[in-house]
Give the backbone structure.
Amino acid sequence: MPRLNLTEDETRNLVLDEAERLFGEVGYDKTTIADIAKACGFSTANVHRVLGTKSAINQAIAARKLSGKIAEARRAAGGAETAEAALHAFARSIYEQTKIMVDNDKRVHHMVAAAIEERWQEVTTYRRGLLKEVSRFIERGCDSGEFSVVDAETAARVFHTSAVRYFHPLLVAELEGSEGAEFDDWFAHIVASLKSR
């Protein structure tokens, strides 16, 4: 049945919700714009008008997932009393969310992995968001005297580079359960470098 009186944002979110559901249930390759339109109660022309191609829908889903990860990690870090605790909570949340996606949502995991591999703009935006948050926690630690670094942005880039094993879905999938460093061991070493004088 047609859905009437939806705002542009509501329409866009409905298309993304239904597309994500179908991509998860049926797979990206087997889902058509007509399938998405039918699930929404729209015409295919309306789906094309709102989001364009299936690839554009896929990119919008990836952007929503990735920005949602950062928002959730921010919430996890929100109540921390120290910069170190906030940085730990933020990084742990990103890692845990990535593990859940890898373990429970294989089709979405493949979509995000493809986005990373193909260097979608959404992934670049996500990485910038991670760096911004990490830099903010490091600056907070420098201001409070917890950390002793000259350049918080450089320290954030080093942190992010060293965190790739815990943040990148392909590495999380491949290395989970291996004999590599555990998250808390890695974090203890990296945070020690932020404190060294």
About this structure: Residues 33 and 54 are 6 Å apart (CA to CA). The chain has a mean pLDDT of 88.
